[in-house]
Amino acid sequence: MSEALFPDRETAGRKLAARFVGRSLERPIVYALPRGGAPVAAPIAAALDAPLALLWVRKIGTPFSSELAAGCVAEGDPPAFVWNADVLELADMDVEAQHHAAERALNELAARKARFPPTLPPSAVRGRSAIVVDDGVATGASMRAAIVALRRHAPAAVIVATPVAAPDVVVDLAQLADEVVCLAAPVHLGSVGRAYANFLQVENQELEAILARAPRPQS
Known about the structure:
Elements: H1 9-18, E1 29-32, H2 37-48, E2 52-54, E3 57-60, E4 71-74, E5 80-83, H3 85-90, H4 95-113, E6 129-133, H5 141-151, E7 157-164, H6 167-176, E8 179-184, H7 204-213
Parallel strand pairs: 1-2, 1-6, 6-7, 7-8
Antiparallel strand pairs: 3-4, 4-5
Helix pairs in contact: 1-2
């Protein structure tokens, strides 16, 4: 992929939103994976006049590298975990090591979540359509954890929406979700940031402003 596919997250979100206009969905809730998913999700929620919620996920690192993902956890009661068997074997992580790594990730997730106003939890999706949004999907671990967290609560449907994703990940997610809406799946994706001309980090103030403009969460 030699040049950016989208100028910024909001523009990509508007293009995704066009894919949902006119569709019949069961009282949809739009769940954004913070932080990058929120600017993409906001135009979708606006187009559908649907609540915008945050679904908090956190990578689970290994004992020797916080960046190497042994798995991922998504908020919920109980939290939803997905694990990367290859990394667990590479890092020689036994059950006790997994437990400690998961506990650290949960504490970090709770601390980040506490900084922002509460939104609809995964349990609110019962009988409703869930649209799960991120700004891009490279490995799919975070999105898989989010899908598992939502599936526990008997949604009418789980739809993954992302501007860009790796082709093999699109295929994998299609086995877990009812539908994957993806604008582009370049063979040589590399990092998600390469798909955007502007891929600045979404700061706390921007995320707070996005939530303030969105419809109030309703159960």
